[in-house]
Amino acid sequence: MPDPDTLTGPQLEGWHCALCGRRLLADQFLGSVEWTCGSSTREVELWVCRPLCGEGSDSA
Hints:
By secondary structure, this protein is mostly beta strands. The protein has one helix and two strands; from the N terminus they run αββ. It starts with 8 loop residues before the first helix and ends in an 11-residue tail after the last strand.
């Protein structure tokens, strides 16, 4: 599971893959992590490419 402190905003929001950082066109749920920003902690869902990163025909 990726460290949420190393992820970008779009990765934390589910717009980009939590593993490779590419924009998600088709996705699958990876899991949830707790992310802390300042004094606020929230649970965020992480999403990844489907098929999993690098397994699709468009990977290069």
